[in-house]
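Dataset card, provenance and construction

Sequences and ligand SMILES were collected as paired inputs. For each pair, a complete structure of the chain with the small molecule in place was predicted and serialized as C-alpha coordinates. The example below shows a pair involving pyridoxal-5'-phosphate. Curators did not alter the output after generation; any descriptive sentences attached to a record were derived from the structure itself.
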Amino acid sequence: MDRLAGFDPPPEQTEELLTRVGELVTELVVTAAERPVLGNGRGDELVPELLALRPGQEPAALAPTLQRIREVLATGVDNAAAGEMAYIPGSGLITAALGDLIASVANRYTGLSGFSPAAVALELGVLRWLTELFGLPERAQGLLLSGGSAANLTAIVTARELHAPGQADRATIYAGEHAHASVRKAARIAGLSAEHIRICASSDGLRLDPRAVELAVKQDVADGLIPTAIVGAAGTTNTGAVDPLEALADLAAELGVRFHVDAAYGGFFMLTERGRARLRGIERADSITLDPHKSLFLPFGTGALLVAERDHLAHAFAEDADYLRDRSQDLDALPDFSAITTELTREWRGLRLWLPLQLHGEAAFRDALDDKLDLAEEAWAVLDADPHLETLGRPDLSIVTFRVRGDDAAQDALLRRLHEDGRIRLSTTVIDGRVVLRLVVLSHRTSRATVDLAVDLIRAAAAELATP
Ligand SMILES: Cc1ncc(COP(=O)(O)O)c(C=O)c1O
Protein backbone atom coordinates (compact mmCIF):
# COMPACT_ATOMS: atom_id res chain seq x y z
CA MET A 1 0.00 0.00 0.00
CA ASP A 2 1.16 3.55 -0.82
CA ARG A 3 1.59 6.15 1.84
CA LEU A 4 -1.77 7.47 3.07
CA ALA A 5 -3.08 10.30 0.94
CA GLY A 6 -4.55 12.33 3.80
CA PHE A 7 -6.36 12.25 7.14
CA ASP A 8 -9.49 10.99 5.37
CA PRO A 9 -7.92 8.61 2.84
CA PRO A 10 -9.72 7.95 -0.45
CA PRO A 11 -12.14 4.99 -0.44
CA GLU A 12 -9.72 2.43 -1.89
CA GLN A 13 -7.06 3.31 0.72
CA THR A 14 -9.62 3.24 3.54
CA GLU A 15 -10.75 -0.20 2.41
CA GLU A 16 -7.21 -1.45 2.20
CA LEU A 17 -6.46 -0.09 5.65
CA LEU A 18 -9.45 -1.99 7.02
CA THR A 19 -8.47 -5.14 5.13
CA ARG A 20 -4.89 -5.16 6.40
CA VAL A 21 -5.89 -4.35 9.97
CA GLY A 22 -8.70 -6.90 9.61
CA GLU A 23 -6.11 -9.56 8.70
CA LEU A 24 -4.17 -8.82 11.87
CA VAL A 25 -7.32 -8.88 13.99
CA THR A 26 -8.54 -12.13 12.42
CA GLU A 27 -5.15 -13.68 13.16
CA LEU A 28 -5.49 -12.61 16.79
CA VAL A 29 -8.98 -14.06 17.12
CA VAL A 30 -8.35 -17.40 15.40
CA THR A 31 -5.15 -18.14 17.27
CA ALA A 32 -6.30 -16.92 20.70
CA ALA A 33 -7.61 -20.21 22.07
CA GLU A 34 -4.38 -22.04 21.13
CA ARG A 35 -1.82 -19.42 22.08
CA PRO A 36 0.16 -20.05 25.27
CA VAL A 37 -0.41 -17.39 27.88
CA LEU A 38 3.26 -17.44 28.90
CA GLY A 39 6.43 -18.18 27.04
CA ASN A 40 6.52 -15.24 24.67
CA GLY A 41 9.49 -13.68 26.40
CA ARG A 42 9.18 -10.26 27.96
CA GLY A 43 10.40 -8.33 24.96
CA ASP A 44 13.03 -6.53 27.00
CA GLU A 45 15.17 -5.95 23.92
CA LEU A 46 12.28 -4.12 22.22
CA VAL A 47 11.63 -1.78 25.12
CA PRO A 48 14.56 0.66 24.63
CA GLU A 49 13.97 0.71 20.90
CA LEU A 50 10.30 1.53 21.35
CA LEU A 51 11.00 4.13 24.00
CA ALA A 52 13.34 5.85 21.56
CA LEU A 53 10.94 5.67 18.62
CA ARG A 54 9.47 8.98 17.38
CA PRO A 55 7.00 9.59 14.56
CA GLY A 56 8.61 10.46 11.23
CA GLN A 57 7.85 13.75 9.48
CA GLU A 58 6.63 11.83 6.46
CA PRO A 59 4.00 9.04 6.42
CA ALA A 60 5.28 5.54 7.11
CA ALA A 61 4.15 2.61 5.00
CA LEU A 62 1.38 0.45 6.45
CA ALA A 63 3.03 -2.98 6.20
CA PRO A 64 6.12 -2.28 8.35
CA THR A 65 3.98 -0.30 10.78
CA LEU A 66 1.64 -3.25 11.31
CA GLN A 67 4.67 -5.49 11.50
CA ARG A 68 5.91 -3.40 14.41
CA ILE A 69 2.60 -4.01 16.21
CA ARG A 70 2.94 -7.76 15.53
CA GLU A 71 6.41 -7.68 17.09
CA VAL A 72 5.02 -6.09 20.23
CA LEU A 73 2.18 -8.61 20.38
CA ALA A 74 4.69 -11.45 20.18
CA THR A 75 6.01 -10.44 23.61
CA GLY A 76 4.67 -10.29 27.14
CA VAL A 77 1.89 -12.12 28.95
CA ASP A 78 -0.90 -12.95 26.52
CA ASN A 79 -3.82 -12.40 28.83
CA ALA A 80 -6.36 -12.84 26.04
CA ALA A 81 -5.26 -16.50 25.82
CA ALA A 82 -7.46 -19.31 27.19
CA GLY A 83 -4.89 -20.26 29.83
CA GLU A 84 -4.99 -16.89 31.57
CA MET A 85 -6.35 -17.77 35.02
CA ALA A 86 -4.33 -15.34 37.12
CA TYR A 87 -5.84 -12.18 38.60
CA ILE A 88 -9.13 -11.52 36.79
CA PRO A 89 -8.55 -12.42 33.15
CA GLY A 90 -9.44 -10.27 30.19
CA SER A 91 -11.21 -11.81 27.24
CA GLY A 92 -11.63 -9.00 24.69
CA LEU A 93 -14.57 -9.79 22.43
CA ILE A 94 -14.07 -8.75 18.82
CA THR A 95 -17.70 -7.62 18.64
CA ALA A 96 -17.00 -5.03 21.34
CA ALA A 97 -13.85 -3.90 19.50
CA LEU A 98 -15.92 -3.43 16.35
CA GLY A 99 -18.36 -1.34 18.35
CA ASP A 100 -15.41 0.81 19.42
CA LEU A 101 -14.21 1.16 15.86
CA ILE A 102 -17.59 2.42 14.70
CA ALA A 103 -17.97 4.67 17.74
CA SER A 104 -14.52 6.22 17.23
CA VAL A 105 -14.94 6.87 13.54
CA ALA A 106 -18.47 8.25 13.94
CA ASN A 107 -17.17 10.15 17.00
CA ARG A 108 -20.62 11.22 18.22
CA TYR A 109 -20.58 13.46 21.22
CA THR A 110 -22.40 11.81 24.11
CA GLY A 111 -21.43 13.99 27.07
CA LEU A 112 -24.55 16.06 26.41
CA SER A 113 -27.66 14.22 25.31
CA GLY A 114 -29.09 16.96 23.12
CA PHE A 115 -26.43 16.60 20.41
CA SER A 116 -27.10 12.99 19.48
CA PRO A 117 -30.16 11.84 21.45
CA ALA A 118 -30.45 8.50 19.67
CA ALA A 119 -26.79 7.61 20.34
CA VAL A 120 -27.31 8.47 24.01
CA ALA A 121 -30.60 6.51 24.07
CA LEU A 122 -28.83 3.44 22.65
CA GLU A 123 -26.37 3.60 25.55
CA LEU A 124 -29.15 4.28 28.07
CA GLY A 125 -31.04 1.25 26.79
CA VAL A 126 -28.08 -0.99 27.65
CA LEU A 127 -27.76 0.73 31.01
CA ARG A 128 -31.43 0.06 31.73
CA TRP A 129 -30.88 -3.58 30.86
CA LEU A 130 -28.23 -3.52 33.57
CA THR A 131 -30.33 -1.75 36.22
CA GLU A 132 -33.18 -4.19 35.51
CA LEU A 133 -30.84 -7.17 35.67
CA PHE A 134 -29.80 -6.06 39.15
CA GLY A 135 -33.39 -5.45 40.27
CA LEU A 136 -32.82 -1.74 40.92
CA PRO A 137 -35.75 0.68 41.05
CA GLU A 138 -37.19 2.51 38.06
CA ARG A 139 -35.28 5.68 38.94
CA ALA A 140 -31.92 3.93 38.86
CA GLN A 141 -29.17 5.20 36.58
CA GLY A 142 -26.21 3.41 35.04
CA LEU A 143 -22.93 4.89 33.83
CA LEU A 144 -20.23 3.38 31.69
CA LEU A 145 -16.77 4.29 32.97
CA SER A 146 -13.22 3.17 32.34
CA GLY A 147 -13.21 0.38 34.95
CA GLY A 148 -14.06 -0.75 38.45
CA SER A 149 -11.69 1.73 40.09
CA ALA A 150 -13.45 4.66 38.39
CA ALA A 151 -16.83 3.19 39.38
CA ASN A 152 -15.81 2.80 43.04
CA LEU A 153 -14.48 6.36 43.04
CA THR A 154 -17.73 7.71 41.59
CA ALA A 155 -19.74 5.79 44.20
CA ILE A 156 -17.64 6.99 47.12
CA VAL A 157 -17.66 10.62 45.99
CA THR A 158 -21.46 10.34 45.71
CA ALA A 159 -21.68 8.95 49.25
CA ARG A 160 -19.47 11.76 50.56
CA GLU A 161 -21.52 14.44 48.80
CA LEU A 162 -24.77 13.03 50.20
CA HIS A 163 -23.66 12.42 53.77
CA ALA A 164 -20.74 14.70 54.48
CA PRO A 165 -20.62 17.59 51.97
CA GLY A 166 -17.71 19.84 52.83
CA GLN A 167 -16.78 17.60 55.73
CA ALA A 168 -14.58 14.96 54.15
CA ASP A 169 -12.26 15.22 57.14
CA ARG A 170 -14.99 13.70 59.35
CA ALA A 171 -16.35 11.19 56.83
CA THR A 172 -15.78 7.44 57.29
CA ILE A 173 -16.41 4.33 55.19
CA TYR A 174 -16.47 0.62 56.09
CA ALA A 175 -15.16 -2.24 53.98
CA GLY A 176 -13.92 -5.78 54.47
CA GLU A 177 -10.32 -6.90 54.83
CA HIS A 178 -10.65 -8.44 51.36
CA ALA A 179 -12.13 -5.31 49.74
CA HIS A 180 -10.29 -4.32 46.58
CA ALA A 181 -7.53 -1.72 46.99
CA SER A 182 -9.45 0.63 44.67
CA VAL A 183 -12.00 1.15 47.47
CA ARG A 184 -9.31 2.49 49.78
CA LYS A 185 -7.77 4.49 46.96
CA ALA A 186 -11.16 5.99 46.07
CA ALA A 187 -11.78 7.02 49.66
CA ARG A 188 -8.41 8.76 49.84
CA ILE A 189 -8.99 10.56 46.54
CA ALA A 190 -12.42 11.58 47.86
CA GLY A 191 -10.60 13.34 50.70
CA LEU A 192 -11.19 10.87 53.53
CA SER A 193 -8.25 10.50 55.83
CA ALA A 194 -6.60 7.09 55.75
CA GLU A 195 -7.52 6.38 59.37
CA HIS A 196 -11.21 6.92 58.60
CA ILE A 197 -11.23 4.05 56.13
CA ARG A 198 -12.39 1.28 58.43
CA ILE A 199 -11.23 -2.17 57.39
CA CYS A 200 -13.56 -4.47 59.30
CA ALA A 201 -12.97 -8.08 60.27
CA SER A 202 -14.41 -11.11 58.50
CA SER A 203 -16.73 -13.58 60.18
CA ASP A 204 -15.08 -16.62 58.60
CA GLY A 205 -11.78 -15.23 57.38
CA LEU A 206 -13.24 -14.47 53.95
CA ARG A 207 -16.53 -12.56 54.23
CA LEU A 208 -17.16 -9.19 55.87
CA ASP A 209 -18.78 -9.52 59.29
CA PRO A 210 -21.81 -7.17 59.63
CA ARG A 211 -21.42 -7.20 63.38
CA ALA A 212 -17.87 -5.76 63.07
CA VAL A 213 -19.22 -3.03 60.78
CA GLU A 214 -22.03 -2.20 63.19
CA LEU A 215 -19.67 -1.82 66.12
CA ALA A 216 -17.31 0.40 64.11
CA VAL A 217 -20.13 2.66 62.84
CA LYS A 218 -21.60 3.10 66.31
CA GLN A 219 -18.22 3.93 67.79
CA ASP A 220 -17.57 6.49 65.04
CA VAL A 221 -20.94 8.17 65.53
CA ALA A 222 -20.22 8.37 69.26
CA ASP A 223 -16.86 9.99 68.39
CA GLY A 224 -18.52 12.66 66.25
CA LEU A 225 -17.49 11.24 62.88
CA ILE A 226 -19.82 10.91 59.86
CA PRO A 227 -20.31 7.37 58.50
CA THR A 228 -21.07 7.57 54.77
CA ALA A 229 -21.05 4.07 53.25
CA ILE A 230 -20.70 0.37 53.89
CA VAL A 231 -18.94 -1.39 51.01
CA GLY A 232 -19.73 -5.05 50.42
CA ALA A 233 -18.02 -7.27 47.86
CA ALA A 234 -19.96 -9.40 45.40
CA GLY A 235 -16.95 -11.58 44.81
CA THR A 236 -13.67 -10.53 46.42
CA THR A 237 -10.60 -10.41 44.20
CA ASN A 238 -8.72 -12.72 46.54
CA THR A 239 -11.13 -15.67 46.66
CA GLY A 240 -14.36 -14.68 44.90
CA ALA A 241 -16.20 -14.88 48.23
CA VAL A 242 -19.47 -12.96 48.39
CA ASP A 243 -20.04 -10.83 51.48
CA PRO A 244 -23.40 -11.28 53.30
CA LEU A 245 -25.18 -8.71 51.15
CA GLU A 246 -28.63 -9.00 52.70
CA ALA A 247 -27.34 -8.50 56.23
CA LEU A 248 -25.19 -5.57 55.08
CA ALA A 249 -28.19 -4.02 53.30
CA ASP A 250 -30.25 -4.35 56.53
CA LEU A 251 -27.47 -2.77 58.51
CA ALA A 252 -26.96 0.15 56.10
CA ALA A 253 -30.71 0.85 56.17
CA GLU A 254 -30.78 0.72 59.95
CA LEU A 255 -27.75 2.99 60.32
CA GLY A 256 -28.81 5.41 57.59
CA VAL A 257 -25.64 5.08 55.48
CA ARG A 258 -25.19 4.13 51.85
CA PHE A 259 -24.74 0.54 50.81
CA HIS A 260 -22.28 0.18 47.96
CA VAL A 261 -21.56 -3.22 46.44
CA ASP A 262 -18.31 -3.77 44.59
CA ALA A 263 -19.36 -6.41 42.06
CA ALA A 264 -16.51 -5.65 39.65
CA TYR A 265 -15.52 -9.29 39.50
CA GLY A 266 -18.73 -11.19 40.29
CA GLY A 267 -21.50 -8.91 39.03
CA PHE A 268 -22.40 -10.55 35.75
CA PHE A 269 -23.00 -13.91 37.38
CA MET A 270 -26.40 -12.24 37.99
CA LEU A 271 -27.20 -13.51 34.52
CA THR A 272 -27.24 -17.06 35.91
CA GLU A 273 -29.69 -18.59 38.34
CA ARG A 274 -26.92 -19.67 40.73
CA GLY A 275 -25.33 -16.24 40.58
CA ARG A 276 -28.64 -14.52 41.40
CA ALA A 277 -29.06 -16.77 44.42
CA ARG A 278 -25.52 -16.08 45.63
CA LEU A 279 -25.77 -12.32 45.10
CA ARG A 280 -29.16 -11.97 46.82
CA GLY A 281 -29.41 -8.61 48.55
CA ILE A 282 -27.51 -6.76 45.78
CA GLU A 283 -30.84 -5.36 44.56
CA ARG A 284 -30.97 -3.30 47.77
CA ALA A 285 -27.68 -1.53 47.08
CA ASP A 286 -27.54 2.24 46.65
CA SER A 287 -24.80 1.71 44.12
CA ILE A 288 -23.10 -1.21 42.37
CA THR A 289 -19.70 -1.34 40.66
CA LEU A 290 -19.51 -3.62 37.64
CA ASP A 291 -16.69 -4.43 35.26
CA PRO A 292 -17.93 -5.64 31.88
CA HIS A 293 -14.21 -6.01 31.05
CA LYS A 294 -14.14 -8.89 33.51
CA SER A 295 -17.27 -11.03 33.71
CA LEU A 296 -18.84 -9.82 30.45
CA PHE A 297 -15.68 -10.63 28.45
CA LEU A 298 -15.29 -7.12 27.00
CA PRO A 299 -11.98 -5.39 26.27
CA PHE A 300 -10.23 -3.52 29.09
CA GLY A 301 -11.52 -0.02 29.67
CA THR A 302 -15.16 -0.95 30.33
CA GLY A 303 -16.45 -0.40 33.85
CA ALA A 304 -19.92 0.52 35.02
CA LEU A 305 -21.63 2.05 38.01
CA LEU A 306 -25.31 1.57 38.76
CA VAL A 307 -26.94 3.97 41.20
CA ALA A 308 -30.41 3.32 42.63
CA GLU A 309 -31.47 6.98 42.57
CA ARG A 310 -30.28 8.99 39.61
CA ASP A 311 -30.66 12.34 41.40
CA HIS A 312 -27.87 11.30 43.76
CA LEU A 313 -25.43 11.38 40.86
CA ALA A 314 -26.65 14.78 39.73
CA HIS A 315 -26.32 16.01 43.29
CA ALA A 316 -22.69 14.92 43.35
CA PHE A 317 -21.56 15.82 39.85
CA ALA A 318 -23.75 18.50 38.20
CA GLU A 319 -21.89 21.72 37.38
CA ASP A 320 -22.96 24.62 35.25
CA ALA A 321 -21.09 26.71 32.72
CA ASP A 322 -22.20 29.50 30.39
CA TYR A 323 -20.94 27.63 27.35
CA LEU A 324 -23.15 24.64 28.24
CA ARG A 325 -26.38 26.66 28.36
CA ASP A 326 -27.79 24.94 25.24
CA ARG A 327 -27.81 21.52 26.82
CA SER A 328 -31.02 19.66 27.64
CA GLN A 329 -32.26 20.41 31.15
CA ASP A 330 -34.65 17.51 31.41
CA LEU A 331 -32.88 14.86 33.46
CA ASP A 332 -35.85 12.51 33.41
CA ALA A 333 -35.99 12.28 29.63
CA LEU A 334 -32.37 11.83 28.59
CA PRO A 335 -29.75 12.73 31.18
CA ASP A 336 -26.55 14.47 30.20
CA PHE A 337 -23.77 12.06 31.16
CA SER A 338 -21.58 15.08 31.91
CA ALA A 339 -24.01 16.14 34.65
CA ILE A 340 -23.88 12.80 36.43
CA THR A 341 -20.21 11.82 36.20
CA THR A 342 -16.71 13.29 36.33
CA GLU A 343 -16.36 13.43 32.54
CA LEU A 344 -17.50 16.02 30.04
CA THR A 345 -16.22 14.77 26.71
CA ARG A 346 -16.34 10.98 26.61
CA GLU A 347 -16.29 8.29 23.99
CA TRP A 348 -19.58 6.69 22.96
CA ARG A 349 -18.97 3.71 25.23
CA GLY A 350 -22.46 2.29 24.85
CA LEU A 351 -21.72 0.70 21.49
CA ARG A 352 -19.00 -1.57 22.90
CA LEU A 353 -21.63 -3.15 25.15
CA TRP A 354 -24.61 -2.89 22.86
CA LEU A 355 -23.06 -4.53 19.81
CA PRO A 356 -21.89 -7.76 21.54
CA LEU A 357 -25.21 -8.09 23.35
CA GLN A 358 -27.06 -7.72 20.05
CA LEU A 359 -24.82 -10.00 18.02
CA HIS A 360 -24.35 -12.80 20.57
CA GLY A 361 -27.59 -12.44 22.53
CA GLU A 362 -27.96 -12.45 26.30
CA ALA A 363 -28.24 -16.26 26.48
CA ALA A 364 -24.70 -16.71 25.12
CA PHE A 365 -23.32 -14.74 28.06
CA ARG A 366 -25.53 -16.58 30.55
CA ASP A 367 -24.44 -19.96 29.22
CA ALA A 368 -20.77 -19.01 29.22
CA LEU A 369 -20.95 -17.77 32.83
CA ASP A 370 -22.87 -20.87 33.92
CA ASP A 371 -20.09 -22.87 32.34
CA LYS A 372 -17.48 -20.93 34.38
CA LEU A 373 -19.35 -21.76 37.60
CA ASP A 374 -19.42 -25.45 36.64
CA LEU A 375 -15.75 -25.55 35.68
CA ALA A 376 -14.62 -23.82 38.88
CA GLU A 377 -16.73 -26.12 41.02
CA GLU A 378 -15.43 -29.23 39.25
CA ALA A 379 -11.82 -28.06 39.53
CA TRP A 380 -12.33 -27.36 43.22
CA ALA A 381 -13.79 -30.85 43.83
CA VAL A 382 -10.79 -32.56 42.22
CA LEU A 383 -8.20 -30.36 43.96
CA ASP A 384 -9.97 -30.69 47.30
CA ALA A 385 -9.87 -34.48 47.06
CA ASP A 386 -6.14 -34.55 46.29
CA PRO A 387 -4.12 -35.61 49.36
CA HIS A 388 -1.25 -33.27 48.43
CA LEU A 389 -3.48 -30.18 48.34
CA GLU A 390 -5.83 -28.28 50.61
CA THR A 391 -8.44 -25.79 49.38
CA LEU A 392 -10.00 -22.81 51.09
CA GLY A 393 -13.46 -24.23 50.49
CA ARG A 394 -15.99 -24.53 47.72
CA PRO A 395 -15.91 -21.39 45.50
CA ASP A 396 -18.83 -18.96 45.83
CA LEU A 397 -18.28 -18.03 42.18
CA SER A 398 -15.42 -18.94 39.84
CA ILE A 399 -12.17 -18.50 41.81
CA VAL A 400 -10.60 -21.64 43.28
CA THR A 401 -8.06 -21.08 46.07
CA PHE A 402 -5.72 -23.79 47.29
CA ARG A 403 -2.34 -24.65 48.78
CA VAL A 404 0.04 -27.52 48.27
CA ARG A 405 0.74 -29.13 51.64
CA GLY A 406 3.87 -27.35 52.86
CA ASP A 407 5.11 -23.87 53.72
CA ASP A 408 4.79 -20.60 51.81
CA ALA A 409 7.96 -21.31 49.84
CA ALA A 410 6.28 -24.47 48.52
CA GLN A 411 3.39 -22.36 47.19
CA ASP A 412 5.76 -20.10 45.28
CA ALA A 413 7.63 -23.16 44.00
CA LEU A 414 4.33 -24.64 42.79
CA LEU A 415 3.46 -21.46 40.91
CA ARG A 416 6.92 -21.35 39.29
CA ARG A 417 6.61 -25.01 38.27
CA LEU A 418 3.17 -24.42 36.71
CA HIS A 419 4.42 -21.41 34.79
CA GLU A 420 7.35 -23.33 33.32
CA ASP A 421 4.79 -25.16 31.19
CA GLY A 422 3.67 -21.83 29.63
CA ARG A 423 0.10 -22.84 28.80
CA ILE A 424 -1.56 -21.63 31.98
CA ARG A 425 -1.04 -18.72 34.33
CA LEU A 426 -2.22 -18.62 37.94
CA SER A 427 -1.40 -16.16 40.71
CA THR A 428 -0.94 -16.11 44.47
CA THR A 429 -2.32 -14.02 47.27
CA VAL A 430 -2.11 -14.01 51.05
CA ILE A 431 -5.09 -15.15 53.15
CA ASP A 432 -4.83 -15.13 56.89
CA GLY A 433 -1.06 -14.70 56.68
CA ARG A 434 -0.52 -17.70 54.39
CA VAL A 435 0.33 -17.74 50.69
CA VAL A 436 -2.47 -19.26 48.61
CA LEU A 437 -2.75 -20.01 44.88
CA ARG A 438 -5.69 -18.68 42.89
CA LEU A 439 -7.18 -20.22 39.77
CA VAL A 440 -9.69 -17.84 38.15
CA VAL A 441 -12.07 -19.31 35.59
CA LEU A 442 -13.44 -16.26 33.83
CA SER A 443 -12.20 -15.75 30.30
CA HIS A 444 -14.75 -16.78 27.68
CA ARG A 445 -11.89 -18.76 26.14
CA THR A 446 -11.13 -20.78 29.28
CA SER A 447 -12.75 -24.08 28.38
CA ARG A 448 -13.07 -27.47 30.05
CA ALA A 449 -9.86 -28.54 28.28
CA THR A 450 -7.99 -25.55 29.73
CA VAL A 451 -9.23 -26.18 33.26
CA ASP A 452 -8.53 -29.93 33.00
CA LEU A 453 -5.01 -29.12 31.86
CA ALA A 454 -4.55 -26.75 34.80
CA VAL A 455 -5.84 -29.32 37.29
CA ASP A 456 -3.58 -32.05 35.87
CA LEU A 457 -0.52 -29.80 35.99
CA ILE A 458 -1.33 -28.66 39.54
CA ARG A 459 -1.78 -32.24 40.80
CA ALA A 460 1.38 -33.48 39.13
CA ALA A 461 3.46 -30.63 40.54
CA ALA A 462 1.87 -30.91 43.98
CA ALA A 463 2.72 -34.62 44.14
CA GLU A 464 6.38 -33.69 43.77
CA LEU A 465 6.44 -30.62 46.01
CA ALA A 466 4.14 -31.55 48.90
CA THR A 467 5.66 -32.09 52.31
CA PRO A 468 3.79 -33.65 55.21
C1 LIG B 1 -13.50 -6.61 43.26
C2 LIG B 1 -12.77 -5.60 42.41
N1 LIG B 1 -13.08 -4.30 42.54
C3 LIG B 1 -12.47 -3.35 41.81
C4 LIG B 1 -11.50 -3.69 40.89
C5 LIG B 1 -10.83 -2.59 40.11
O1 LIG B 1 -11.28 -2.63 38.80
P1 LIG B 1 -10.43 -2.04 37.57
O2 LIG B 1 -9.16 -2.83 37.53
O3 LIG B 1 -11.35 -2.27 36.42
O4 LIG B 1 -10.20 -0.60 37.84
C6 LIG B 1 -11.15 -5.02 40.72
C7 LIG B 1 -10.09 -5.39 39.74
O5 LIG B 1 -9.51 -6.41 39.74
C8 LIG B 1 -11.81 -6.01 41.48
O6 LIG B 1 -11.51 -7.32 41.36
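Derived descriptions for this record:
Residues 112 and 336 are 5 Å apart (CA to CA).
The pocket of pyridoxal-5'-phosphate is lined by residues 88, 147-149, 152, 180, 182, 233, 237, 262, 264-265, 291, 303 (CB under 6 Å).
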